[in-house]
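re: ur question from yesterday

yeah so i grabbed the chain u mentioned. its 235 aa long if i counted rite. heres the sequnce exactly as i have it in my notes:
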Amino acid sequence: MAAIPQHGAHPPEEQEETSAAYARTDRTWPARGRDRATYDREVVHAILDEGYVCHLGFVRDGAPVVLPTLYGRIGERLYVHGSTGSRPLRAAGRADDGMPVCLTVTHVDGLVLARSGFHHSINYRSVVVHGVARPVADEKERRTALDAIVEQVVPGRAADCRPADAKELAATAVLSLDLAEVSAKVRTGGPNDDPEDLDLPYWSGVVPVAPVYGAPLPSEDLRPGIPVPGYLADF
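ran it thru and got these structure tokens back, copy pasting raw so excuse formatting
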């Protein structure tokens, strides 16, 4: 995983816009917390690759809508999927130029407890992607995208399950979103208490947060003799 910049380090004003970084735009230039922003490709990819749930924002019938969904990354492209009966996915399919969207991914790494309520915060890593989501019509790319989404959740699983048949594929819509207008924000470290609050009799610090996966539970109708696959036993 790429090194994550520490809070307060490497402000965007000092970052060179090279092939190793995404170009900064008006939409990816934050109004607040600019010292936490980064456009480094490796950092962005690392944050995306660690997750699998995103929130997809768009405008439907003049009103903003945000949907949680699974995603997968292949190179500089994200894929999301859903039912062909989904109104936003149908709308994207009808649009000649695709559907403008904003996609976000966030990891919470810690609860930051300060001496004052105002300075309470969280340590986090997040990515925001602006762009145009387009329907994927090519069958080969759709199958590749669906495998990528499965792999995003559990690496190794796509090759260890039945792929979608023709009927299932026809019922599934896939959207692609290029990673072009992208930014990440990261907060690390402890609370930022005011100097005059340091002697107050309140505990301050960070409560670490991390995902925990339990032991795999076999389905009740699993055929006897099928072991837990290695990629899942080590998950």
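noticed a couple things. The first helix runs from residue 41 to 50. also The beta strands are 37-38, 53-60, 63-74, 77-83, 99-113, 121-135, 172-178, 181-187, 205-208.
anyway ttyl
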